[in-house]
Amino acid sequence: MRAFLPAYEMETPQDLAAALDRLASRPGVWKPFAGGTDLMVLLEAGKLPHKKFLNIWNLGELRGIAVSSELVTLGALTTYAEVQRHEILTREFPLLCRAAAETGSVATQNRGTLGGNVANASPAADSPPALIVYDAEIEIVSASGARWVPYPLFHTGYKKMSLQAGELIRRIRLARSHAGWKQYFRKVGTRRAQAISKICFAGVARVEAGRIADVRIALGSVAPTVLRAVRAEELLRGQRPGDAALQAAQDALGAEIAPIDDMRSTARYRRHVARNLLGEFLEVLAG
Amino acid sequence: MREGARKIRVSCVVNGTAMSFDAYPMARLLDVLREELKLTGTKEGCGEGECGACSIEMDGALVNSCLVPALQAEGAKMRTIEGLAIGDSLHVVQQAFITHGGAQCGICTPGMILAAVNLLARHPQPDDAQIRDGLSGNLCRCTGYRKIFESVVAAVRPTERRA
Q: What is the pTM of this model?
């Protein structure tokens, strides 16, 4: 059922400080609204729980990509299109660019934002696995201050995250420390474009003298949150990327994921494909 | 205090003409274009950003107008299917869709053409993969896509002969 429009308010704050004051004035009542690619879908379905929205789309403090010698810092309103166009991201953080290119359509990529993808907290989102393997940090701001949070710890349960009422995601930063690392990303969906993932896999590893010196792996759509596969990583560290290491890591991965049957796929298919993607990742590391 | 929204006045530029309209802040831009501005060329397909039928350009970027709230149109420059032809002279992409059978029932056509025109603005000479990628957010249930793809190829490489 379509929404009753007069019930929904939307205001445009002058700047970030005004937005944070508004959020603090009635905690949990005002909901930030950026590109609308998730919230407008809920509105149309009559399932939008909030009634008051803050239009943050034009807030300059949440825009732009800043590069220093050690960090790339992305404003929360950075769109998927902007991610793909950025030269340094393309070169050093290809998994994030791949995720951005495979999220929705051109039109969605022009409006969908990284901050929105994080705050929507879908376990099927495609940019979070890449952000996790790059060990991203996110800056949370409120009227009373700011804090940086390690992104791998941000999502705490299905649609739950360490974001309090009155808080807003301001920036996401990535350390430029993956030169020479091998990187792998694969999204498996019903069709090549415009599909929500059945499963999504991101992996980075540093290989030295044929052994995996360090590795980080994250998957989407296999658990209540986007998941970092810490047990599989542990088993792979120090190993050569061959059959023996793969078998053990696949078993560990199978034990730490918790996929379900839903409209997009089945638990059985997701388990099978998760093992295969880990295998493909190790082939990249061996190659 | 009264809860709920009042209509707001939004000023924008559509197809080169300054316009304003009154709408609830979260009204869909799609509905505003069709019902307030009488620009019914923009179509509704799915209403949830999956099909691309309602595609328009907003400040040069392709967007699904069903997912843009009216308030965010304030100050925007927009282009719809009505803004492509100059008088009786059709845009090269429009003409190619006619010549090469890129349109059948017509519901996806305005969005498909906006997606193609926007692609050409970003890549004036797109290769086949770029054309497929540029159209991948627009669904069609009539043509099987081949004639749409060929229409865009014809618009960008008019001399090319394809089997």
A: 0.95
